Structures are given as structure tokens and as C-alpha cells.
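It would be a great kindness if you could assist me with a short task in structural biology. The matter concerns a single protein, recorded as an amino acid sequence and a row of C-alpha cells. The record follows directly beneath this note:
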Amino acid sequence: MAVKTVLVADDTAFVRDRFSTAIVAAGHRAVTVQTGPELLAHVQSAGSQVDLVVLDLRLPQGHGVASVKALRTIETLRAPIVVFSGTIANAAEARELITLGVAGYVNEYTSVPHILPSLAPYLFPDHYNRRSSPRVVLGIPVSYRFGNTIAAALTLNISHGGLAIRTTSPLEAGTTMKLRFRLPSSKKDIEAEALVAWVDRRTGMGLQFSKVHGGDHSAIDDFVQAHFFSNRKS
């Protein structure tokens, strides 16, 4: 895959360093800024070279959603904008971000091994199934059966429409399979049918649900809704 440049805008060194480390380790370039003026200055000077913006809405002198609006006025910036979910103040702000065309959300406290998989769908949209629903980082065991073969792995994230799993032996895109997994705090296994929507040899594969029983799908929806905004900056 091509080398990409990711602009990470966050006022917390811990977040900037972790995301930069994960991005560079995967062979890409990371540029970090920590204030609103720094963000706008970099995009104004090098916006055409940026492939993805990962944005903290609470940057010093950043003015929340106004930062996204300001970025949208810079014609050279063609990159998608992803927002750190813990910096969204409320549901009204989330709705406004949708109208501004924000591509998605990522948890700023995502563990380093999960950072690139969470960003890859925005860096390589042609290779991934672009689900519009939010993803929640989640590492739980999942077993899957294709043909007469049964395998097991850990999930990377889950959404209303499917899940991503970490594996060094991903299947071909379009492969159908049966899944079994259990959500945290649940006593019941969820069984589903899915197909492989995207493949990345370095991270794993994304599975799109094709059949989930009604009650199980409700459990997935409730889990995603409950955990998507579970992290907040004070």
C-alpha cells in the first residue's frame, strides 16, 4: 500500500506520541500539532500533502466544531477528517459534525496495536467496507467457520454492521463464514453469518454481518451505543 501522511491534532502529548508511534511503525508519515492555530497553519501550507486529519475538538484556541468548519474552507485539503470521539461534547455537536461531512470517529485511548486498524478504513477507503456506523474498539475472542475449517482470533473493533479481527492469515474478500462471540458482561453467545469485506495482511480482515438474529443484533446495537461515547475529556 502507498505511504500516507496523517496529521494528528491533539493537545495531549500521550495521545500524539502513541498515534505517531503506531503510524510510523506501519510505514506511514505522522505530523503532530497541539493547538488550533498550529493545525490551520500546517493545513494552509501543506494541505495537499495530508491524507488524513485526526482531530481533537478541544484543541487550545481550536473552538470545537469551528475547527472543522475552518478546515473545510481550505481548498487544498482533500483529506477526510476523523474526530477523537472523547472530545465530542454532546449529541448536538455529533449531529453538526455529520452535516460537516466528518468521515468517522476514533477513540483517543485506543491501544497502539489497534490504532492503525482504526484509521486504515479512512486511509485506504477503496480497500475497506466503509460502514457509516461508529466502531467501538473491542478485543474479545471470536471463532469463525468457513467450509470445514474452524479458526479463532481476537476482534479489533465492532460496529452495528460488522467487526474487524486481527489475524495473520486473512481470507479472501467475499468469503462467507459463520461467527460466534460473546460481548463483555453477556452470558450468551452471539451467532452470526458474515462475509469478508476487506483484507489487510498487516492487520487482519473486516467482516460484514449478513445475518444476525433480531435479539442478538439489538444486543450489538446497545453495546455500540453504550460504549461509543464512554470516554470523555474533562
